[in-house]
């Protein structure tokens, strides 16, 4: 049987992974740009990519805010705030953040897929150079990569959402929570 400290570490691990994934997703998307004869294309030119960045920043901030509480719980075995507010905040915050990130993941994948299909065919029809096709492909592939990394952050927060719902359970609250 696992010790309660080992089980309490699990949310901390998920929060750290989510924090790193969200930071990486934002960094990858913000640095995603291509220069061409027509000008510079960056993530700012696509609303869906802006939304991916914004949701990554909001998710990162939320996770960063939650991290000290998780560290304190693992270190001491007690909640930093004893009035029952933290399990409620974890429950609702994790739910809202995970679904917010899920919408950004969907938007990032959808716009990248549609642009690859639409613009790839368009560039073929106008006889664009292989270099231009390669630049577009590189830009959109980087959008895919950033969105995939954001999806890792979403999965971590979705898992934390389940864990925080277990911690709210009245049957488990007498045992100081199931996972911390």
Automatic annotation (TrEMBL):
Membrane topology according to the record: Multi-pass membrane protein
Membrane-traversing stretches: 12-31, 51-75, 96-113, 144-166
A GO CC term attached to the entry: plasma membrane
InterPro entries, per the entry: CASP_dom
Main localization (coarse): membrane
UniProt keyword terms in alphabetical order: Cell membrane, Membrane, Transmembrane, Transmembrane helix
Record localization: Cell membrane
Pfam families: CASP_dom
Kinase in keyword set: no
Source organism, top-level taxon: Eukaryota
Casparian strip membrane protein domain residues: 6-116
Similarity field: Belongs to the Casparian strip membrane proteins (CASP) family.
Subunit structure as annotated in this protein's UniProt entry: Homodimer and heterodimers.
Protein name: CASP-like protein
Record lineage: Eukaryota, Viridiplantae, Streptophyta, Embryophyta, Tracheophyta
